[in-house]
Specification:
The chain is mainly beta. About 10% of the residues lie in helices and about 45% in strands. The termini are far apart. The strands form three sheets. The chain has a four-stranded antiparallel beta sheet with strand order 1-6-7-4, with no helix packed on it.
């Protein structure tokens, strides 16, 4: 016996909702990725010597303290950039606050460390920066928000060869207990320059 037309029409919104839910789910099992932290735990990630951060991915869970899992990828720098002449941990972004950080001394991001604070349901952040002789940044710009909306999965891959992550600007929502990031991307000169901190 066939369903009456009204029953089939009623099912259409339900099917559309289920299809939308399937599309909204991550296209992978979160346990398959090499996360550098567990929820509510600190982490310290540094690229191998001579490599810089080129990809960042995070996964949000409200049930796990409104925290994120994080994973990072590195890539060797172009041979023309040479070896890093100095590396250091830069300024700290406090939990629950907005933060803008650009590596001092014209440095580039080669690592990240973070500590989770249960009382704020947020993390403090710090970039590991490396300087390459006396090279200077130019053609800098900020990415769009990562993630685009709070509570979504976040992903950044350096979009063009020859650009590097120099820092980030991040906003924190005290209501949603999550962060969005705008990463600062720059090219570096092929020659040494006299400017200490651009």
């Amino acid at each position: 016996m066939k369903d009456p037309p009204t029953t089939r029409l009623w099912a259409l919104p339900l099917l559309a909702t289920m299809a939308g839910m399937a599309l909204a789910q991550p296209d992978h099992n979160i346990n398959d990725l090499p996360w550098v932290n567990n929820f509510r735990q600190g982490f310290n990630f540094q690229c191998p010597h001579g490599e810089l951060l080129v990809a960042i991915r995070s996964y949000f869970s409200e049930q796990e303290g409104s925290d994120r899992l994080w994973t990072f990828d590195c890539q060797p720098t172009p041979s023309g950039l040479g070896e890093p002449s100095d590396c250091w941990w830069d300024d700290i972004g406090r939990a629950g606050l907005e933060w803008t950080s650009t590596c001092t001394h014209n440095g580039l991001v080669a690592g990240v460390q973070s500590k989770y604070f249960e009382a704020v349901l947020d993390r403090e952040w710090q970039f590991y920066c490396c300087r390459y002789r006396r090279r200077c940044p130019y053609s800098c710009w900020k990415t769009q928000d990562v993630p685009e909306y709070f509570h979504e999965e976040g992903e950044l891959v350096v979009p063009t060869y020859g650009y590097f992550i120099r820092g980030a600007q991040t906003t924190f929502s005290g209501v949603l207990r999550d962060r969005q990031w705008k990463y600062i991307m720059c090219r570096m000169t092929d020659f040494d320059c006299d400017f200490e901190n651009i």
